[in-house]
Design brief:
With 374 residues, the chain is of the alpha/beta class. It has 16 helices and 13 strands.
């Protein structure tokens, strides 16, 4: 069985890595990695792939930046050529980026089966490009691999057949536990700046990420968030690796940070994990960190008005703050209390990729012929 694994940005590679590693156990499965190049990322070095136990991608589509329409069109045009060259039986897409949408559409128009990993998540906020990508991808996928029970109910309400929906857990948690098991204190540095030294110096700290356009592109919202962060930093210092977009907008709006907020350059996954796994609280607008903090039992404050990952709030350590100063401060206090009653969601045990391949190989044995048509 020939399979193409699609990744468009660094978090996507973290999701396909467990799938690739698990696929190596199957003699009849051949996986090739397609990097669409949707996001340029300084972290995409050979050491990045080595850390994930991944080879360099078999294909790099070099999509680059641009409007959603232009980027999606470029990915579709080049990926069609890859599909015609490889004639895969299956295309596996993950998450909710433009690459997810683009490659699933191309595959389906060529009669190639599509598996969507992290299917069924919904924020019910159509102003989010990711929500549109999720909904369209799920409208045409053949296999739906779900991370939490809300995803199953969403898909069933949308008319998807029960036999195509599989509650398997979360490959991102597979990757998290893989790295947490390898992590050794003192082994991580970023250039001349020692992350280990800062961690030892502070001992007690919060960890912060902030990058969503809705939070940093509006000066009023950005200032409200920074005001709340400054107040929190009076109680606990904050370590803040600054996303390039966030740094650019802070400079443009002349936004100043408290001296107790330690601004760092962007960090790799392992370096970030080394810091946030021992933080007293994580403040973020990221989707992935909501889940990862829940998996490791770290309090989390999500600086957004909604989340497509309700299990992190219902069961896990996450508190939804909104973007007002008061909401963020209240959520910070609540998160420290909530930790005592939080639990790890069902099937977030590091074995999601195993379950996915068990289902896929069984299904493809029943339908061994490629659906691809030239």
């Amino acid at each position: 069985m020939k399979v193409l694994l699609i990744a468009g940005a660094r978090p996507n590679f973290m999701k396909i890595a467990p799938l690739y590693r698990e696929a190596l156990k199957y003699e009849r499965v051949t996986c090739k990695i397609v990097h669409t190049g949707q996001h340029y990322d300084y972290e995409m070095s050979q050491s990045f792939f080595d850390d994930l136990a991944l080879p360099a991608p078999d294909y790099f589509l070099d999509a680059g930046p641009g409007s959603h329409a232009a980027q999606t069109a470029r990915i579709m045009t080049v990926f069609e050529g890859v599909c015609k060259t490889e004639a895969p039986q299956l295309v596996v897409v993950v998450g909710d980026v433009n690459s997810t949408l683009a490659c699933s559409i191309v595959a389906k128009k060529l009669n190639i089966r599509v598996a969507h990993v992290e299917a069924g998540l919904r924020s019910f906020d159509m102003s989010m490009p990711e929500e549109i990508n999720r909904m369209v991808t799920d409208a045409i996928s053949d296999y739906f691999f779900v991370t939490e029970e809300s995803g199953m109910w969403n898909l069933l309400k949308e008319g998807k057949p029960l036999e195509s929906i599989h509650f398997v857990g979360h490959v991102m948690i597979d990757n998290l536990l893989y790295h947490a098991g390898k992590l050794e204190d003192g082994a991580i540095n970023t250039g001349d700046f020692s992350v280990y030294a800062l961690k030892q110096e502070l001992k007690r700290y919060a960890f912060m990420t902030l990058h969503r356009p809705s939070n940093v592109d509006d000066p009023e919202i950005f200032r409200r968030i920074v005001s709340a962060l400054s107040e929190i930093s009076n109680d606990i210092p904050i370590i803040f690796p600054v996303h390039p977009r966030t740094r650019k907008m802070a400079e443009q709006f002349a936004i100043k940070f408290s001296g107790r907020i330690h601004l760092l350059p962007p960090l790799g996954f392992t370096e970030s994990l080394f810091l946030w796994k021992d933080a007293e609280v994580v403040l973020t607008d990221s989707g992935g960190l909501q889940e990862e903090t829940t998996a490791l039992g770290v309090p989390c404050v999500t600086i957004r008005d909604n989340t497509e990952r309700p299990i992190t709030i219902e069961t896990g350590t996450n508190v939804l703050a909104g973007t007002s100063r008061e909401g963020i401060l209240d959520a910070y206090e609540m998160s420290l209390i909530k930790k005592t009653n939080a639990a790890i969601p069902q099937k977030w045990d590091g074995h999601a990729a195993e379950r996915i391949w068990t289902i896929l190989t069984s299904s493809m044995l029943l339908h061994p012929a490629s659906l691809y048509s030239h």
